Batch of 4 targets.
Target 1
Amino acid sequence: MQGRSLRAAFVALVVALFCLAAFVGGAGAAPLQAQLAADVYPGPSGSNPEELTSFGGQLFFTAEDDAHGHELWRAGAGDDGLVADIEPGEKGSEIQDLTVAGSFLYFMAHDSAHGLELWRTDGTSAGTTMVRDIAPGPTSSEPHELVAVGQTLYFSANDGLNGYELWRSDGTTFGTTMVKDVRPGAPGAFPNDLTELAGAVYFRADDGTHGMELWRSEGTAAGTKLVKDVVAGAASSFPQHLAGFAGRLYFSPGDGVHGVELWRSDGTESGTELVKDINPGAADGSPYNMTPAGGTLYMTAFDAVHGSELWRSDGTGAGTTLVKDINPGAATASPGYITAFDGGAFFRAYEGVHGYELWRSDGSEEGTTLVGDLWPGSGSSEPAELTPFDGSLIFSAQSPATGIEMWATDGTTTALVADLLPGHDSSLPDDLTPVGEALYFTADDGTHGKELWRLTMPTAAPPETTTTPTPTPNATGPAPTRTALIRILSGKLTLDRNGQVKLRLSCDAGSAGACKGTATLRTVHRLAEKKNGAKRVLTLSKASFSIAAGRVGTVNLRLSQPSVALLREDPTARQVMAIVAAAGATATQRALTLRPKPPRPAHRGHHAATGR
């Protein structure tokens, strides 16, 4: 009976894709074409491109070849290639946080002489330079949380004297200065969640007196002030999920009375207030995923009656309401990847029947509907990386016939764009980034490893053999039954001060029972062993897990002291591969950056939860 159901679902999917071919590549329409954009590291290993960023009409990204380690590359203007070899040799410069501000692309990079410092490029090798050695010598200032405010770059850095504080840069050495020593002395204020709004930068920080609270800066010491001490005294409200909407900043602090709820601010103390107690009383509503779309602020929030569902707000208490109880009752829909498109919000959600699939909303209950059931029945297609491009919403999703591949929708019709790794295996498209008339992304086609690809509208209609592929059944029958389906959700990893790394995984709602297996963290690069100097890929940690079907879980991977020391000393070791194998499931892996967490002060008092 189960076999007949699977065959019927498979046939239905194939027929649907055939009928929908006109949307992506049918009569009268030029199909989107996917092609390899750069094979930086020829062969099956792949160069593991990351940090895809549009700048000056080109794509800039980090990648590794056999000679350079992870360095800065460019593509898209006919002069594709390595931009600069900042740390010569195989080690690589550990480039992170590519951010455009004014005429420059800024980033954090490491070289042996200066440690991790702020760099910039104008897109040329000669124009790629360190901005300032903020912590002089090989000590690292670790600039992070880079954000542009007009032509100016703001970030958090540690100069070795004042701890982590707010800095700014105009791209010159002398124009790169600390804005304000918010917390005098070595501990630092640890500014985080830097967010631009109306020419100012908002952030959370701890001045040592008020706890971790909301701050605002106009770029000067005098213009950098505490917005409001939401929890009076040294306790912290820990504001998070900062987002601008209609000229106001929206965020989620915990005031010690209402739990973690929705607040807004106009930058003044009197204009900083609770919008709505979504989950009444001291319990948390934990609003996050705040996304403006069609004149409305959408978010994911929790209440005890409806679980975690889609909410909307116009900035008032009365105008902050549940959009729809997608998964009825106290069960949870967990809307994610909320993205503005076609005048409304598109997102991933689970309603208890179809698994995690693509939904859309115009802000009304009746206008909140399922877009498509790409994995028919209770299985989940788990759409991710939702990205508007050329009038369509492009995203990654999985189906029984194709694995995880690239899809497109206009809001009504949904179709497969390209099956780069044909059959049930997955090319895992990721980091979708529009640049002009092309959409760049990373994928593994099984031949080149994880490399850079692009999606374009061809100037002439391609031959029929290269139009958007439609999945066909194997000669041996339909896709095999999967008793479990596990997916890696983490985009970046952090090594905490206790030597632990948390890896987030999801177990498909259609899995037969819990997903049980082993998660392994290993280095991407071959590194020298201390005992004999031989180079090999090193296993950093392993841990078993068990996650209930339809749930998200966290695997705690504990690293040994030698592994922790290696990660702190050698930036090359921070390029890691997470490999997850579960009983009855296809093993999956993902290349990630593992960043050692800078020390942070202990906070007293209320520390808000990060959400559900």
Target 2
Amino acid sequence: MGFPARMCTLLLLSAILAHPAFASPPCYDELDADAHSLQIAETVYQMDWMEYTCDAGAMGWSPAHTDISEWTCEYATGSNYRWTYSNGSSTANVTELGRSVVADECETHELSTGCVAFSSDWHGLQAAESAYYTDNNEYSCDLTGYWAPAYTGPSQWSCNSAGLDGYEWTFTSGVGEEYALDETDTVDCSDKWKCTAGGFDGDTTEIDEVVDTNSVPHNLTLEVAGNGKIFWPAPVNVSGLNLTAIVSIGSNFISVDTSEYGNLDKAANVTIYDLPYLRQPVAYRNGATCTTHCPYISYLGGDYSFGVAGFSNYTAGPNAALEVYDDNDAQGGSQGKDLGEDIRFFANYSNVTSGAPVTDALGSCSITFSAAPAGPHAMSYNSTSRLWEYNRTFAGGPVSWSVSCTSPTYEPLALGDTLNFPSLLGASAPSGVANITKFAEGRYDYSGGIANETTEGGNVTGYILTGNESTEKWAGYYGNVTAWKVLGLDESRLMYDWSWDVLYGGEVCASTGTTFDWSSLASVAGTDVDGVWGFDSSGSDSANRTLTTEASYAIADHSGTTNGTYTYDGSGAGAWQTFALGDGSGFAPGNKNGLAFCVNMSGTQTAFTGDPHMFQLMVATNEAPGTYESYYFFLELD
């Protein structure tokens, strides 16, 4: 019987890889084996013909790991010979007296788990068919009592035919590969190396069940539940790869290192899970918007799927951008307008990929102030400036303000700012943070196994169960601060600045709004925080059971005591004291903007990660599923 098509492919792959010199120089063991076989062939030929020869065909020699064209016979006589080999950095010198080989050490690889299991059971099946034939003078599809697969499943094997002259069976791997084999076939796994793919779950392809890792069948999938998925529609070579080290699927981040592993640099479908956007997002490749080469597939329930032509790293973001400023900001001309003067406020709501404005035909914007009348007030679209605008006067300040824009097509966005007046610039208060650069994000994810126990009727068993669950009431921030003390009117008009170091001291504070009034501060109890966020004060992670230590503060020319708690450093010791403050206007249920969470900065402590950082802070969050909390940060530098 002839070789089945799939088996021919297996053998052809083996034959191709048996001559790697076309692609790269052989390693030491491969070259030394060919040099040794050459010596044996010359010795046998000399014993038969009383002389050595340069004719490889005449002495029946064919190298197993190199190509014959890379070998040169310098001479061959009745008493001696010399052959040389050269391919890149690999060289050899072979004579009747010995051989010398120069080449890199050979890499060692484990063989494909799926191929080894397939090969082992096939050899067992062949032995069983032979035994059956000895007993019955024919082969059989029913080998009960003779054979059962030890490493694969019985349902993976099907007998196509069996009789006096032979037999044929088909094996189907766990990923759909099919191999038809008869009594003459063998399974060669020597070129099919094991692929490692730990840390993935969900719909991830069962890599350990793949037979031919040089060409994983269609639909190779890697997934991390809750984060995302990669799907390659065409066959991919993963032989010898550690996919755990090459592929990263994190929160709104998918990356494949193709700098050394071009095998994976192929077209694929990428899905990023659990995005918060209300409108179709935009894909980013290496931080730049990717539209032409990242065709949209779908966006359903926060899961965004798009195609990619190849790999680097991919993230997703809103399809709109929002910039806000007023007459006193640099973008507005740094006009230095004061109390009683008419001040204009601007919002640039635009398409994030093209930069085109979202006009009044496509959406709307409104503005809200900390000073009465607070609003929201409708902003007007100016077709000349291509900005949304609003203007008004104020009798006091500073004034916090925020803009909210929405559209049926573009992502609704909100952004705030603070209006300062020249006559009030001397007032002491923490300053808003201009820029935030995120370097890490994650949440508690239990990675251990799920405990279980077997019992039977009539048993009564006592247990102590141990486990953890992530809080939904609190979030954490940690990191570093870059800042200066300055003298001037605004960012573009500075008279002088002083470099600030954390050793001078200072505080980091966070509030859900930009309207926190720093002119007077109040102590806050844990029950106050519970009331504002609607927490059950009797809950184990309520603010009432969290903010249980007295904390002293000195912020914005005010000092006093309030309530807080210590978060842990890298050793697990309480080191960073988060404390809560209320503003002078008071706080009540629903008025989150009247609360701030603060921490004193330090240059001598480690964060909970064990790394040195300048601050570590806990803040309250909305515990309802699928909700998000926006925090604004303030700095006070000593």
Target 3
Amino acid sequence: MNSRRKILAWVLTASWMVAAATVGPAVTTAEASHARYANYNWKPTGVSNQIEFVLQNAFRMSGYGGGCYSTVPPHSNVPCTGPFGTPAVGDVIVEFVGGTMFNFGDATFVGSPLGPLFYVVTSIDPLNDWLLGNALDPNSFPAVDTTITHTYAASGDYVAFTDSCCRISTTAAPNEHLNNPDGFYRFETVVNVGTQGSNRSPVGSVPVIVLCPINTLCLFPITASDPDGDTLHFRLSTPTEASSLTSGNPNTHGTVCPVNFCQPGPPFSTNAASVNATTGVYSWNTTGAQLAVVQPNTLYSTQVMIEDLDGGGLIRSKVAVDFLIQLVPVVGSPPAFDVPPSPQCGTTLPAVVGQLLTFVIQASDPDSVDIVMLNVVGLPPGATMTPGLPTSGNPVSSTFNWTPSAPGTFALTFTATDQTGQQATCGYVIEIADAPPPNLEGRMTGGGRLVTAAGHVTHGFELHCTASETPNNLQVNWSGNRFHLESLTSATCTNDPAIAPEPPKAGFDTYKGKGTGRYNGASGATAEWTFTDAGEPGKSDTMTIEIKDSSSAVVLSVTGTLDQGNHQAHEDK
């Protein structure tokens, strides 16, 4: 960067900090146009009808210059730790600007003791005036719990959502919003409560602001994965999915969105944006798109819906990713992520509970005078970047470190942006598996009956703790249906200290297995189960089993304590 560019960058940053330091929590409607980004996901907890949500949102950073908050009652206002009293990574804010809450879809919602949701800040971008945070569960205060747990009164498919106001205004220095100025924002997800077995939602990630060149084709991927291995389907959200009302506000060209929400395209652009249904690659030819008239930054809002499909191609659930696109002139060459030392972009990084995952992310710009800013969206709670992000240089690098405490799936996206507005993105999925317990030797036999609301489920089996040892047999019958195990593909025998009395003589009390077999005579079905032996006389023995047919549709998913029969663990002799 030449000296003039350095001075300009520092002046912009310093001006923003001074402005942010003078902004308090009281705002007008125009000032409240602050929503920048949203990304939600969820999973069942294992407790009946109970779901755990993760809510990520980005807001206008200068809207929270009035101070941060304590999670300890009475939740006093405390100084933020960033420059000039602005929020920094790790600070906690209350979303007073838009009054954001989350509706579980069953006529109940969550906020906080102060009204709107609390958020812990996970990423910031002072130059572009946004902060990203994870919503906190108020029932866990004073702990900073970034998962919000809710128990539904009944099973069913629920549309859970956030619905509030407002998106960025027509002109809000230094931004000009072209397609949905001052529009409402709605981020929704379909939640399967006891209707799709143990299905979990997809997870996704994309930068808060994606920079696209003017008058050319812009392509970038939506980083996403399904924790259950379901096929993903991508599409643009409908107007009513992305907003509950239309603002009716014209942009600086006098153009108005005629519906609740307009994706990038006509009447604001010659060409309509699209997303590849299979790959998740977002595409927009920006030739002919309206550009900012009053402010320097041209912004378009957009929302993508990610759906997971069953084996028959039917939709199980959906989650939205809502973000901004900024149109920028092409100047020189864009940055690029350096591989190595960075892992290959778009890959899945395996991790294990209790074990450190570490990697270096590095980017550089072929234009030697340019300075590259490195940042991240979707950093998992507890993960650190050293040095902290954003950070700048050419090349620029930071080290990711995280020791996960529970299994799960996370999507995160790094951005490398130079001072001319040229950008590269790099996304990863992190898959965290449980640390494998020591597999004990032996076998388990038994069978019995489980009484469910849908009828009786009976089973009988002999299964070895080592899948290659034989014989291995399992038969399950219910409501005129039957499953017969043909191949045991995974087996683990462990001792669960929570099961009383002490384990049987075999030294283990829990058998977890997976296998393939026939469902009603048709091969290609799969089953996953857990059987426990809680000692004699067997009245506390339990079974959990999920069976899918050859199209991966769940045909049986039950758990409970046997009302007849028992399970017996044996030493291997």
Target 4
Amino acid sequence: MLGALAGFLVVSAAAPVPVADQHGFSDVLRTRAGLLVSSADGTVRRADGDDLPVAATTGATMTALAASADGDLVAAVGDGAVTTSRDGGATFAPDPSGGRIHAWAAAFAGRDLLVFDQDGVLWRGRNGAALREVGKRLPARAFGAVFADARRGWVVGEDGMLAVTRDGGESFSLLDGPVQGDKEKRGGLRAPERREISGAVHAGGALYVSSAGGVWRSIDDGKTFEHVFVYEQPRKICVRMSARGAAVAVACTGFETSLYLAADGRTFKPVPVTDSMHLMSVAFDADGGLAAVGAHELFIRATAAGGRIAYRSPTVDEWIHVAEKIGLEERPGGGSLLGTVRDEHGAPIPGAHVSCPGYAEAHPGVARETETAANGEYRLRWPPRYIVLTVRKEGFASVSLQRDAESDGPTRIDVVLSRPVGCSGVVLGPDGGPLGGATVSLSQRRAADKRPWQIAGARTQSNGSFSIENIPPGEYVLGATAPGYGETTEMVRAPAAAVRVRFGAGEIFGTVADARGEPLQAIEVELFRSADRGFGPLARVDVDAGGAYRLRGLSPGECSLVVRTPTISLENLSSEAGTARFRLKPHEGPEYCMEQPVTVGSARLEVPIRFDRQPPITGHVRDRAGAPVGGAVISAQSATRCPAKGTHAADDGSFSLEELDPVTYRVWAGPVRDPHGRSASEPVLVRPGAKLDLVLGER
């Protein structure tokens, strides 16, 4: 959501700019005093019909709103400002600490205001009192927060962060959310693209989170998720959500199809609003209607049947004028997408919802969705060069198809919808016994994907059984994982029942110790497939108090065993039997990392790990004339999953790379803002203890 807010709360002049030159609405919230809207122009506004008069002025970009469950307390937070209300949003007063807080998320735990700043630091205002800094509680920037009651809540943010608290925000623990982050939570590996969880809401006893892929739903407090709404507009995301009873609405940043409503909390349907774009937030108003806000000061009022733009900036009018000026008439013989939607018996399906995101953004007036006619036919104008077509109809399983558009004529895509089916079975451990608490995923492989895309999931019962419903018939990759176990997969064809998934018999175990032979405790052990560079681990486990680890249920193959210190750990704060309270704690002390190739077979394999102290890599940096280059940057990058190292050369050109891991490094030196036009040295491959003379080249 940070990317969305930064990109869509547009600044109309080069920085630095006066706040008045900024425009864009970031959040909307229903309070006792009416609908409130936070704005990038440094104001909080209160809806009066279709008008939005100013209710409070802060002088800073405002990013989020929050209200207590009883409605008495309201807060607006932003980039260097916090303003609060004790009368349900009727009047506001600035918080004394607001100028020090740069926040994108806030929530109330009971009557305590929690504000999460951009560095993961928590600020708390108890029962309407001024905010006080509590300390760092989160490993990443927070973009949304929600509480189900005074003690139980969740915070979401960048890098796929999902954290839960069960003590009113006194402590947090990380959960394995549904979105892959920019870095894996424990591994530090780069994902193919930046992913973040943008919003969170609690409705009907379920937790909902939103991101670039749509909306996910969890009925077990965030332990497992079901992907209930797939949003497939390229480079667009679903941002903030709102709930009323079991109904859930979500605002997304696409064109035309940017507002969605699920009256039952599961089936999301578009709310058509002509010329809508870049929505950031949505709220249910007092009579059950919807209010949505977005970039370019867009304010929308809507019902399930559709909506209208009640208020917008001149920028939106300019975009609409451009679209009308271009003229969106179809070219003869081309520029259209058409086809017929039928059931598995060949009968046409009327009233199916057909959508195709990704149209040229300069044409916000083009319809990107339609419904099939009585004969099952549909037609859309001006499809993108690469088509992602989604077809939905109640009572049928949804279908998404991808292909390139025809260059010299209309593109025809016929679609067959099938009745939804299910897949059920049992997960077995290596010994053949049922394995409860395992996570089961159902995925389909799409063209050009290195790995299948997960479309559904479940968790096994104590007897190892699982059941996944509402999927289209076809071939799937059924996968199972469990803590301390590997990953096992089976190919299945749905509908399928009595599927048996069994973990492999391979096992790796050992003890992790330091140079003196003393067992290490704050260590995690992960197993990766050697061929799957860039993907997550097959199995992961923390060492026990004696430094021992054990990975079970492994399938044969060439792998890499990665043993390292986690950058973030959970500090146990439990004080009573039967309770579990944790706090995120950055690692302190020596950091270890080692990657070792292993061959997994069908038997137990002992792999002891010992971290011997590694000597530094030392040397000098000179230019081609032999003169020392002080301040040069020396970089040492490993070909393994262990982190890179770096340092600066002293005035005499000498350097020493310390705290090295027992791996081979690729070392080179580069100048910093060098006025003589020198380039980086040639990289060399060395082990710890090497002595180097690095010579800068010439451009």
